[in-house]
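This section describes the prediction task in plain terms. A model, or a person checking by hand, is given the sequence of a single protein chain and must write out its three-dimensional structure as a string of tokens. No templates, partner chains or ligands are provided. The sample shown here is typical of the held-out split.
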Amino acid sequence: MTFAGFTEQAFDFYEGLRADNSKAYWTAHKDVYESAVRGPMRELLESLASTFDGEPMLFRPYRDVRFSKDKSPYKTQQGGFLQVAPGLGYWMQLDADGVMVGGGFHAHDRTQTQRFRSAINEETTGQQLVTLTNKLIKAGYALGGDQIKTRPRGVAAGHPRLDLMRYEFLTVSRPIPHSESTSKTFAKAVAGHWKKVTPLVQWCQAYAAPTP
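The expected answer:
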């Protein structure tokens, strides 16, 4: 399967949705969403699934507004995921501004976060993560994930890896130039970025895997 790149219609669709997040807009442009956003992203993920041994997943376009003051019904971006394990793998997102790529994990329970922090606390595995994240930061990736403001219980204020210990889960992401996302070589570009993220995904799978 050969992915030919996204078209300008995909970005125009989200530009319009950002201005008019309504059912009327969505209904009038749903065919564009299906043909220019959802379909191509599914095709891209499926074309890379075997390379990264992941299961292609597309996130729902609808927002959960039950507990939000913002009642806008639709997400202003489309997310895609190659899942290596529940909540762990390679990620991408398309919106009006362009495409973001990255990877990592989202914790499903507290015990997973505890295992993650225990691995950071250990000198060998903790330093491995420092090396991995520093390399990714130098390559233009930003660290992400929910953080506590102080420090985990029992962790010393002077812990050498306290910044990482504050994370409850860990992801990395970086933008891809708009010109690349509309190129026929875009799948190759995404694969190149995800290969850089692979050591982090493997570290998370080894030391912060989902609870069975």
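For orientation: Helices lie at 8-19, 23-52, 110-121, 123-138, 162-165, 178-181, 186-207.
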